[in-house]
Amino acid sequence: MIGDIVGRPGRRIVEDLLPRFLEQKRVDFCVVNVENSSAGSGVTPKIAERVLQLGADVLTTGDHVYRKREIHGFLRSSPRIVRPANYPSASHGNGSTVVEAKNGVRVGVLNLQGRVFMPPIDCPFLCAEAEVERLARDADVVVVDFHAEATSEKIAMGWHLDGKVSGVVGTHTHIQTADETILPKGTAYITDLGMTGPYNSVIGRATDKVLFKFLTNMPTRYDVGEGMEKLCGVLITVDSSTAKAQAIERVMLSGLPGGD
Ligand SMILES: [Fe+2]
Ligand SMILES: [Fe+2]
Known about the structure:
Elements: H1 7-24, E1 31-33, H2 45-53, E2 58-60, H3 71-77, E3 96-100, E4 106-113, H4 124-135, E5 141-147, H5 151-161, E6 167-171, E7 181-182, E8 188-190, E9 197-198, H6 207-216, E10 229-239, E11 244-254
Parallel strand pairs: 1-2, 4-5, 5-6, 6-8
Antiparallel strand pairs: 3-4, 7-8, 9-10, 10-11
């Protein structure tokens, strides 16, 4: 599962590193969050198709999902992209999907959005219960991208779904956390995957623009930052006969000379 691709620098490192990584690690199924992939906000069908071509099986999103109008039709028609399930039912797109992995396992992917320090929407916890129950009928394994601001809300979701899904990963805050673990009932968990984009920035945005805003409280256009690109996420190993996670490993790949 790969964290939010941010703009062109994020797309570039996905182009450079994702296919080789998936092959080297023999990854059966790949989920990529693309909510910031187009100019730092939203995603277009062209970008979505390209990330799928590069090896993603399902794309997840978040609060920026509708930013580019062109994606609305794609959200309605493609089974390989999801938006948070706890949005109003009339919102374009689906909150979950089931797609077959390369090894034949049917993987359910559920996208949810948090409510703490975020716009008010339906309860992600109740939504998760209903969606997981529904997905269990069609999927062998279910993983969740919980797009949320507060660490507490994300950790709570991990506990809420422990034993019910194979993985709960957080996105949206763009900084990878070091708390990856297997919860007691077999769910792999991390509070945030980290962004896939330029770390020479403030969570993906050009440093000078963000500092201007902090120093003056005046509005400014947040450009996408440049430099120190990294591809971030986790590699989860699941026993598909029990749907229990066996391992979770943090991934942070750097494409630049001198990087880690
Ligand atoms: Fe994001
Ligand atoms: Fe977000």
